[in-house]
Structure formats: C-alpha cells, structure tokens
Amino acid sequence: MRVLVVNSNTSEAITQSIAAVATAAASSGTIILPRTAEYGPRYISSRAEATVAALATVEAIAAAGDQVDAAVIAAFVDPGLAACRELFSFPIVGVAEAAMITSLFYGGRFAIVTTGPRVVPVFEDLAATYGVAGRLAAIEAIEDRDIDPAGHPDHAADALAAVGARCIERHFAEVIVLGGAPLAGLRDRVQARLPVPVLDGVSCGVRMAEALVGLKIPKARAGSYAHPGRRAMVGLSEPLAALFERAP
Amino acid sequence: MRVLVVNSNTSEAITQSIAAVATAAASSGTIILPRTAEYGPRYISSRAEATVAALATVEAIAAAGDQVDAAVIAAFVDPGLAACRELFSFPIVGVAEAAMITSLFYGGRFAIVTTGPRVVPVFEDLAATYGVAGRLAAIEAIEDRDIDPAGHPDHAADALAAVGARCIERHFAEVIVLGGAPLAGLRDRVQARLPVPVLDGVSCGVRMAEALVGLKIPKARAGSYAHPGRRAMVGLSEPLAALFERAP
Amino acid sequence: MRVLVVNSNTSEAITQSIAAVATAAASSGTIILPRTAEYGPRYISSRAEATVAALATVEAIAAAGDQVDAAVIAAFVDPGLAACRELFSFPIVGVAEAAMITSLFYGGRFAIVTTGPRVVPVFEDLAATYGVAGRLAAIEAIEDRDIDPAGHPDHAADALAAVGARCIERHFAEVIVLGGAPLAGLRDRVQARLPVPVLDGVSCGVRMAEALVGLKIPKARAGSYAHPGRRAMVGLSEPLAALFERAP
Amino acid sequence: MRVLVVNSNTSEAITQSIAAVATAAASSGTIILPRTAEYGPRYISSRAEATVAALATVEAIAAAGDQVDAAVIAAFVDPGLAACRELFSFPIVGVAEAAMITSLFYGGRFAIVTTGPRVVPVFEDLAATYGVAGRLAAIEAIEDRDIDPAGHPDHAADALAAVGARCIERHFAEVIVLGGAPLAGLRDRVQARLPVPVLDGVSCGVRMAEALVGLKIPKARAGSYAHPGRRAMVGLSEPLAALFERAP
Amino acid sequence: MRVLVVNSNTSEAITQSIAAVATAAASSGTIILPRTAEYGPRYISSRAEATVAALATVEAIAAAGDQVDAAVIAAFVDPGLAACRELFSFPIVGVAEAAMITSLFYGGRFAIVTTGPRVVPVFEDLAATYGVAGRLAAIEAIEDRDIDPAGHPDHAADALAAVGARCIERHFAEVIVLGGAPLAGLRDRVQARLPVPVLDGVSCGVRMAEALVGLKIPKARAGSYAHPGRRAMVGLSEPLAALFERAP
Amino acid sequence: MRVLVVNSNTSEAITQSIAAVATAAASSGTIILPRTAEYGPRYISSRAEATVAALATVEAIAAAGDQVDAAVIAAFVDPGLAACRELFSFPIVGVAEAAMITSLFYGGRFAIVTTGPRVVPVFEDLAATYGVAGRLAAIEAIEDRDIDPAGHPDHAADALAAVGARCIERHFAEVIVLGGAPLAGLRDRVQARLPVPVLDGVSCGVRMAEALVGLKIPKARAGSYAHPGRRAMVGLSEPLAALFERAP
Fold first, then answer.
1. Mutation target vs E (from D130, D196, D204, D213; most E CBs, 10 A cutoff)
2. From the CB coordinates, do chains D and F have 3 or more pairs under 8 Å?
3. What HEC string does chain B produce?
4. Do D87 and D209 lie in a common domain?
5. Burial of F143 from C-beta contacts in 10 A (0-12 / 13-18 / 19+)
6. D contact test, residue of E27, E90, E105, E203 with most D CBs within 10 A
7. How far apart are CA A83 and CA A80, in angstroms?
8. Are both F89 and F108 inside the same structural domain?
9. Beta bridge partners of E113
10. D187 and D169 share one domain
C-alpha cells in the first residue's frame, strides 16, 4: 500500500520529521511517500495561510499522480481536505481530523494541546466542522511558544505535558491530542509524562488511511463529495485544470 | 463610501447582475465597485471550486488596493471570507453570511432555497460555521436546475417561491433566503409570491457592509482574526506575497 | 429616516445618554427620536422588571405613532422585542440582539462584559433565544458594581476593560460586547483599552435599524411574527387595545 | 395544601375547564384555587398577547395573597413564569413547562400536538428555553382549527390523536403532550386513542406543584431567581408596586 | 401507595440511610419499601460496576413482585433505568434523573457536587442522556474523598457546600444537586450552608414517583419503551427469564 | 494480531455470519477469534435485552483471556462497551461505534438503515453518546421486518437500499451505515445498489481495532476509563469477580 503524506507547509525540515513519524507508525506493508507543498507558507498559523495551503495541497496531491492508495494531509488545519475528498478517488485523511476522530475510540472527551493561542479558535472550528465538538474538553496552548520539538524534544514534551495535565485535571480530558504536525514526533515523550492516551495526527492519519484502504469502499458518485464533474475553469495551471476536466 | 463587490466566480455576466443588485440596494452615498475574480470557476458549485475561488477572491481584493471602505464577497459560499477578514483592515462581508445573519432580525427560523441538491450540505456547513444552525429551518433545492434567472426571471421566481412555500408550511420557516448570488436579482419577484420576508445576500451584504463601516470599529489587533503578521511564504504572486509581508 | 429609540427604563438620565450615543452613531440622514417608558423600573436588572418593561415598551412604541421608520429597544434585555415585532409594521431591533448579531460579522466568539452577576444567566438565555449561543465565549461581570459610567467614565472603562481582557485571554473572545444600555457611551474608552472590536448595543441597534429600513423588506403576513390579527382583549388601555384590534 | 391555578387568559369558561382538570388531578389533600387573569387576551395565541398576559399573571398571583402553597400558571406559553419565580416565595409551575419536563420521566422524545400552526415556533422556543429541545421530537398542529374541546370532545380528540399518531410513526415520539390548556380535559380521550403516554399540562402542573411543595426547598436567596430586592418602580398599580418593594 | 426504593449497591448500610431519607420525603400515605441489590458492587463508582448493578437492579425489582406502585432506583448512575422502564408496567424513576429533572423547575442551571473526579464524566454523560445537558452548569468533586456522610455529616456538608459555593460563584449555578445516593441525608445540612436550592435524588425520586403514580398514565404499548415482548433468552435466572416471556 | 469478535447475541448462526465478514475484512496478518455470549438474548432488540447482553459480553471477553490484542463487540447496540473499555487493557471497539465513527472520514452526514422502528430511538441515543449526533442525517427502518439476510440476501439488500436511497434523497445522507450486525454480510450487495459509501460495523470494527492495536497507545491510568481498581463485589461469578479484583 502506498500512502502519500503531504506536508502542506513548504518547510522541508518539517516534511522530514513528519515522514519519520509516518514511517514508524505505518504497517509493515505500507510505503510512505512524503511530499512537500510547492508554494505557500513555511508554517501555517492562520486561516489566511491555510487558504493558500489548501490550493497548494490539492496541487501536491494531483502532482503525485494516481499511483497512491491514499493521501494524508499533514498540517493540523487539514488544508484542502474537503476539496481533495471531492476530487480524488482514493481515501483522503487530514491529521487533525484523524487525531480527533481516533480519540473517540478511547472514550470520553479529548483535549488538544498546542503551541500558540492564535490557533485555538481555528482548532475549535475544526472540531465543530468534523462534528465532534461535543467530545472536545478543551484546547490549551503552552505559554512558551519557542519550543523546539526537533532540537530540544524533552523540553518541548515537558511544556506540552504540563498543559495536558491541566486539561486532564480541570477539564476531565481523557485523551490528549497533539495539535500540530511538527509535534507528532513528541508523542512517545508526552505519553511517558501523562496517564491518559496521547495521540498525534500523523500516526493516526497513517493508520486510519490504511484502514480506509482496507475497507475498499468506493468513492461517492452522488452527494456533495462526488467529483464535481467537468467544470469550466479559467486561468488554472495545467494539472489543476485537468482535475476539473475529468468526466465524473 | 466605496464598497468593493467581488464576484468570486469568473463569469462577467454574473458580475453585471450582482452589481445591478448591489447598486440598487446601496445607500445614496455609496459607490459600488464591482470586480470579477481573475481565475477559477465560472460558477462555484463544489467545495473544490470554492477552494480555488477562495484564493482568487483574496487576490481580487488585494488587487483593488486600499481605496475601498469595505468588501462584499459575492458568491454564496463566501470563498476566502475568513482569510480576507484576517488580511484586510476594512470590513469584509460574505453574502451567505450577510443573508443568514440579517435574517435573525426578522425573528424565527430561516430557510434557504437554492438551485441544486449538491450545495445543500455545503450551505448547512456554512450555517454551522456562522453559528446560526439553530435558526436554520431547512434548505431546499428546486427540481428544475435549468432555471435562467436573467432570461426567464418569472419562471425562476415561480420555482423558488414554490420550494419557499414548502419551507414555510412544513418547516415553519419565517424568512426565506435566496441561496445563490445569481438569484439576488429575483428577490422582488420571489417576495411578491411569498408571505414572509425574502432576503438576497447581495443586498444584505451591501447594507451590512455599510453598517459596519458606519460603526467605525477598528480591526482586531489580537486573536485569530488579527493580521497574521509578517509570514514567510514561498512561490506566491507579488501582490499576494505583499499581503503577508505587511508588518501587523 | 426616523428611528425611535425607546429607553425601556423609566430613568430620563439614561434616556439622555442613550440618545447621545444613538445620535452619534446614526447616518447623517437619520433622525433619532428618543422616548422613555412611561411606567416600570428605573433600571431593569431582573426578569420580573423586564416583564413590566416589556409591556411599557410596547405602549411606548404604540404611543409614538406610525411616523417612525424603525424602532430600537434600548435596554439590554430587549424587553417586549418579540411582541413589538409581531405588532408593528416597521423594523424593530433590540440592543442586546443587535450587538450580539453584529458581533458575528467580526468573526470568532464574542463575550459580554457587564455590571453585576445577577444578569449573567439572563444574558445567557438571551443569546440562546437569538440562536447565537454557540458564538458566545463568556459573560463576565465586573466586581465593583458601583461604577458610574456618566460621572467617572474612565474608571468605569478601566473596570470593563479588565474583565474584557480576561475574556480575551481565558476564553478566546474575539469581540467584546458591552452588556447594558447605560454602558454604550463608554465604547470608545473601552475600545481604546482592548485589542479586539468592542461593540455597544445602541450604536449597533441604530445602524442595524438603518440597514433593515434600507432593505425595504415587507412585514411577514404569515407565520408567528405576522400581526396576531384582531384579537379580543379585556381591560387594556385604549392605545394598547387599538394595537390588537387592527385588521391584519 | 392550597394550589392556586391561574388562567392567564381572561375567559371564565376556560378557567372552569382548567379547574375541573386540576381538581381531578390533585391529591386528596390538595385544594385547587382557580383564578382568572383580570385583563388581557381572551385566548393567547401570539407572543404579543403573552406579553400582556405575563403581567396580568403576575398581578393575579399577587392578588391571591400569601395563603397559597404553590401556583400553577395555566396557559401553554407559561406567561410570566420567570418573573413569578423571582417574585414569589412559593413554588411556581407553568403548564407547558410541567408537561414537557414530566414527559422526560417516560423516556424518549416527546411531541406536542396543538391547534394551530402559529404557535408552533413559540412552543419550539419554549422547549429550548426549558433546556429540553433535545428531547422534542416534533410539534404538529391539527388542520381543523375549529375544534370545540368542550362541546365536541370526541371530534377534538380524534383530530389530536391523528396528528399524535403521525408524530409517533414519523418522528418516533414516545410521549404526546397536549399543547394548550383548554385541551387538558381531552387527555383521557386522546390517551384512549394512542399507544404511548399522553400528558396534559394542567394535571402535570398540579402534580409537580404538589411534589415541589412536598420537597420543602427554600427559595433561592442568590442568583438570578432570588427576589430582585427593593426596586424603584414608576407608575405601577399598588399591589404590583408592593411586590417590588419587599425587602428580599 | 407503595414505592419500592432499590439500592443498586449491595451495602445494607447505604440502604438504611436511603430508606430513612425516602421515608422522610414521602407523602403521608406512601409506604417506602427498601430493597438491596442481591449481587454486585458495594458502592458503584465506575461504568463497569454500573453494568453489573444494572442487571442486579432489574432482578431486584422483579423479585419485589407486582405489589408496588412505582420503583425508585437509588444509585446516582441510575443503573438499569431504561431496561426497567421497558420491562415493568409501573413508573420507574432514577435518583440522578429525578434530581436533574426536578432542578429544572427551580429555574436556571444546576450543578452537581460529588465525592470523586472519576464519576464526573459519567454524570456528564447522564445529563446528556436525559436531555438536560444544556441546563448543567458544572460538576465538581470535593477534594477530600474520605468524607463520612453518616459518621461526620457536618464535615461532609462543609466539603460539599464549599464546592457548591464555587459552582454558584464561578458557573452561576442556580440549583445544587447532591451527586450520590449516600449524600442524600446531608441535604438539609448543605442547604443550610448555601443560598440556592439543594436537591438530593432520593427525595426527588420519591416525590416524582408519587406524582407519576398520581397521574395514572398507562405504560407505552408502542415505541422503544414498550415491553419488548416475548423474547427468546438463554441461560437466565428463572425470574429474569419470566420478565422476558410475558406476552406484551 | 488476534482480534476477538464477540457476538453479544446467543445465536450461533449470527456468530458464523459475523465471523465470515470479520475474516474477509481483516488484514492478512490478523486472526479473527469469534465467540458467542453464553447467556442472554437470541437477538437484541431492546434496551432490556442489551442490559443482559452487556454483562454477558463482559464475561465473554473475560473468558477469552489475555491472549487477544483487541476485541470487537459485534451487536449494533455495543452492549457493555464502556465497561469493557474500563476493565480490559487492550483496545475495545463496538460495531455501531466503529461504523458511525468511520463514516466521519467520508465526509458529510451518515444515515443508518435498519430492520425495525423499535431500535431507531436506541440508535439515536447511541449516536449522541458517541458525540456524533450532529453528523447523523437520519435513521430509517425498512417496512418488511421479515427480511432474511442469510437466506434471501438480494431481497434484503433491495429493501435496505430502498430506504438508503430515501435517506440520500430526502436527508442528504452521504454515507449509509447498516444498522445491525446480521446485516454486515449484505454490505457489498447494498453498495452495488447505492451511489454513496455503505458501511457495516463488523468490517469497520475489525479495521479500526487493527488500527488501534497498531498505534500502541497505552491504556488510561487516570480518568473514568482507567481500570476501576480493586473493588469489593458481592455474588459475582469467579471470572467476573477476578476482573474487579485486579490491582489497577
């Protein structure tokens, strides 16, 4: 099975760290194909950047061709997720979506711990969009935004575990979700510091993508997630235009 | 007051019809500046097209420069609304948002009547995103999708009023919202056929934009709708890159 | 355009302060007609007082006659709003309603800051009634209830801004609503102290009333907001009885 | 135990029918004290009439003096309920509230059957206000509004049972609530026609009032349902003014 | 009237304390029949124990025979409530359900105070199941779990009242519910310490059961709470099997 | 990987059909261990039966010992799910839960099609319990309850697809979930008849169980899903008692 993992950010270093987590999380028969968005933000932290990244993610998946069995969108705002779900015939999973939905299987409410207050309302909206807001206990950001997950992972894990512990104690969170693709590599460390399940979106995204591929469910041919059909478009790049010109 | 009205679709004919409605709806001192997206779908009817149109809308507003007092995004999925609200310092209003929110002032639940079943779940999600799902009575699509609002307006109004009447009778809708920017010109005709308020997003968008300009509220300098600040971006067009390079 | 602004409290001093805010907020062509309820509470701070004020508000608007284009109910529990919307043919806007609904256009969740804990549950119920509870981040009351908005406005603004700041930091409020008609005159001062939009109901009410008048939407002839029709009533004052005797 | 049953409508005939149901429903030791509002609508079917009836209901309970152990507000929009709960020290129960809340004990969702479409949105709002909207399956009105519960009870019961059956079949209602105080006398007849519990607000109101009296819970001295305290009021009738002048 | 009060815990001491509260709360004509579950947990504090207790409760009520008019399930997770409601023809009330639902009559939001954090999410789920989550202000647990309601009631009441006061101040709770059947005997003491109504499930359960008996509503013959009908079962005890073999 | 699949019904024929679906759905390295509950209902169709089956399911999983990596509870009301999640250290998945949660990855709202109206409210409650009620479009039951999935699968698939089509058209369902473990074997046939994804809980349950095992998340040591700890129990069977006597 070939699972495309698209870093919607344009930072290669983040792609490497995501790819490492994805590879470690994958089943033995799964090949992880990492890919970096060709344009857009270095690191998404606003809806404006996500709007750019959404289109870049669509293009990145289109550029990967049909030789993939599933794609994971690896930025914690899942840019372009709904568009990709309409346009491509293989399963598409976002890492925020995957982590939140997977958390439901552990029972109780989940909390998201993340690195800055600005994205808190954005993540709240995502939980509502995915229909799981009723299972969201809290979203909390660490105060020190300058953590360095790659360079000083223990320090970063300490900071995340501290707010995670607060979510458990004050908000009765029963699962902690790491809110940010670059945080995925810290899961084991944060888990070691907390008494409830800790989830990262990249691992959940890969395992959920594998499960969906295994279920062999055909793509919708009706409804709002069917391919939009041959649509007249103006001024698009060649491959993007091609996506909209396919007969459904 | 100068109100930019952006048609997020690339069809000039739709721009003309929207501009006519906007001009008719505006206060005497308001100048309507119509503008058409430079690339993207002829007419948005899927999330995939909306993803393209979102970026095209951001670019269209950026291209209009700072000589505007407010902007109305005139496509009924409000593409790029949140991104524009972050990036620009003047008020931004989407026509779907404007119609749904304005409906709240008439009391009771609103229904949306539209031209095809595919967008029904998309509009439902919008109502939830805007926080007004509890006031949404129903969304219903006419069966004959080939109505021609410009060419045969009475026939189109008949069709829309018929489903509107069903929303009133079965779902106790107390306001009817026309779900589609090209339908805005039919408001008077549909109103003449129905016993409850009928709203179009373009008129509501213009009047709400005027009201927001009049309130003179400064743009947020904190929170998730503040300007994202100087952000590193890769491969963007010049004006789009400039938007992200402004010091907040 | 003539906009009636009814102070549902019987305090003339409050009427004066509301009228000043309303006049400052109105468009150049708008004439503000202030009016004070003829009986009822000096200052509403309970549902019991609001029940009296509701009827007093209906009577005040009836007494103003048909020479108005819209009415704004200027007490932050919007007493009599639904009744007036049924009985009168011109647009009716409540200041609590106007502030909460206008806040939706700025994006994200709003918080209400107010002067005493007793009204907090009342305002919560209002937000639910208006269908915007999902966008309500928090309601917080200042501890010092003896602020004097007219006499010591800077001290009052300090107190309100302090709880507003707490709503921004702890509850991620992205808009602050001043919860109380007598607080409306403090908007500029509170705004100067906070980094997100600050709204007062009186200004929002006037601007929203103007927008609704501009939209020229006819009154509902069906549904629960239509005029109730000729209804037999017992023991009412002459003008109130007349309101119910109109043929719809 | 003395339970005041206030007909918020000014129709004596309705008072008689309500009193009969209340007396039949009461425990052996309970004395039912019927009372008719002294002014206001003959029969409430709009929010505007309910606004008048709310104040009339407060005055009716005040006029009954302190020689009662509880009061039931017997009009299906519960006019004045919240105000009375603040002002009086004995338990106050509304018949709509009582029927909806009692229905929760039978399991599953309840439906309300009533006599005209106009009140459907009003009853929906009530269910939301009482916090039980999630248990509301449907509200349906009979088509023939000219039923005569007193004169032709079997015909009326047939009509109500028919829409009740539709609620059971289509909306999986597990309890049927009769939406209207004048319908209370039809409960046995409607029950005989339907396979699920049928509730009328008057019987539920009386039994719930008895239960609350039995629990001997003191009135709140804090929060938004405490007595508002000595409040300055203008132009009120003597007894109404007295209610607001009591030291809390 | 004979009201069975089943202690779903197997502790006789708890049964005694519950019986004392139930007897004190009951009307003069009501006979309280206490009964202890024959197997299962000493004191339920997890869903796993509640699963055992659910079946033990069904069996305990079955063993009591048909000589009862109603049954109250007296453990604050209401084990087996829905099953019993299907199987028995007399009213069944759970104490958690009764306290939460009764609280609705006092207005505003209720809070639950309890003895350990583990049950907080369980009680939250119960409130959602009963459809009253929108009226739940907070659930708070005392820190000292080793309170001894029977032996040191004043100390226990102090601890509960302290968290209750916090719920009133921070979360605007307007009613306090004691979350735990063994806490029921502390109601008067906690009430003496708090300015809002304090409810215990046992008293509420008994009074609500009496009210339901008084209403004389027949058991559902359709829907999901009707008797499941003659169902083939394997390996059940004699009396339990008999319950499922009754023709509906 | 060894995945226990427990049929909570006591019918061996259903176990065989579930095992066949589970085996077909599993990854190549997964061994499916089918097991039938030792006591309880032949086929669960009420909450009362589910209450018995819940305990039987706990006992069945306990009897299987620790030689399993995960367990799937294969009855569409997921009897005993929460209890098992507390008691066992390996992942537990219910088939209703698995199907509903998996559906979230396909976008839009899901509908459940099932075989009788009685379980419709039960399934609605389950969706709410799992926090996904906002994504539930409808639950519809076929009229002919005497379908024979094993004997006449095409006829059964026709009936299920017919109501599924209605859910798609009327309620805009974008995924169809087969509501009943015995229906799982019909998935391919129903899928062939419908244009949107069709999910069965058994396949989803197995694939989700595999994914959870793959994620290697440790069991909660805190919160309401931790093992309840050594608890005093009375009158339990040996193995059940042992489950509660384990030190956590």
1. D196
2. yes
3. CEEEEEECCCCHHHHHHHHHHHHHHCCCCCEEEEEECCCEECCCCCHHHHHHHHHHHHHHHHHCCCCCCEEEECCCCCCCHHHHHHHCCCCEEEHHHHHHHHHHHHCCCEEEEECCHHHHHHHHHHHHHCCCHHHEEEEEECCCCCCCCCCCHHHHHHHHHHHHHHHHHHHCCCEEEECCHHHHHHHHHHHHHCCCCEEEHHHHHHHHHHHHHHHCCCCCCCCCCCCCCCCCEECCCHHHHHHHHCCC
4. yes
5. exposed
6. E105
7. 5
8. no
9. E140, E178
10. yes
| Contact partners, residue E203, CB within 8 Å, separation at least 6 | D215, E21, E22, E24, E25, E184, E187
Rg of chain F in Å (alpha carbons): 18
Residue found under tokens 């979506």: A97
Q: Are residues D91 and D211 in the same domain?
A: yes
Beta bridge partners of F114: F141
Q: Is residue C65 exposed (0-12), middle (13-18) or buried (19+ Cβ within 10 Å)? A: exposed
Tokens of B9: 């679709």
Residues 6+ apart with CB under 8 A from B78: B94, B95, B96, B97, B126
User: Do residues A109 and A57 share a domain?
Assistant: no
Note whether F64 and F105 are same-domain residues: no
Q: What's the domain range around A31?
A: 2-95+204-245
Which residue from C71, C76, C16, C14 is spatially nearest to C46, judged by alpha carbons? C76
Q: Are residues D70 and D22 in the same domain?
A: yes
CB of F6 closer than 8 Å to CB of F90: no
Establish if B169 touches chain C: CB-CB under 8 angstroms. no
Report the alpha-carbon distance of residue C138 to residue C133 in Å, rounded: 10
Nearest residue on chain C to E109, judged by CA atoms?
C121
Number of H helices, E strands in chain E: 9, 10
Which CATH number do you get for residue D55? 3.40.50.12500
Nearest residue on chain D to F118, alpha-carbon basis = D172
Non-local (6+) Cβ contacts of D47 within 8 A are C82, C83, C86, C224, D77, D122
8 Å CB contact of A25 and F168: no
Q: How far apart are CA B191 and CA B189, in angstroms?
A: 5
Number of domains in chain E: 2
- CA–CA dist C101, E1 (Å, integer): 53
**Contact between E8 and E72 (Cβ < 8 Å):** no
Opening angle at CA C181, ends B91 and B218, nearest 5: 20
Q: Look at chain F and count its residues.
A: 248
C187 shares contact with chain B (CB less than 8 Å) = no
User: What does E70-139 look like in DSSP terms, one character per residue?
Assistant: EEEE-STT-TTHHHHHHH-SS-EEEHHHHHHHHHGGG-S-EEEEES-GGGHHHHHHHHHHTT-GGGEEEE
pLDDT tens string, chain B, 248 residues long: the values are 999 999 999 999 999 999 999 999 999 999 999 999 999 999 999 999 999 999 999 999 999 987 899 999 999 999 999 999 999 999 999 999 999 999 999 999 999 999 999 999 999 999 999 999 999 999 999 987 678 998 999 999 999 999 999 999 999 999 999 999 999 999 999 999 999 999 999 999 999 999 999 999 999 999 999 999 988 899 998 888 999 987 66
Q: Is the dihedral of CA A179, A183, A186, A187 positive or negative?
A: positive
Q: Do A90 and A111 share a domain, yes or no?
A: no
For residue A210, with 0-12 CB atoms within 10 Å meaning exposed, 13-18 middle and 19 or more buried, which class applies? buried
Are B and E neighbours with ≥3 CB pairs closer than 8 A? no
Least Cα separation, residue A37 to chain B (angstroms): 10
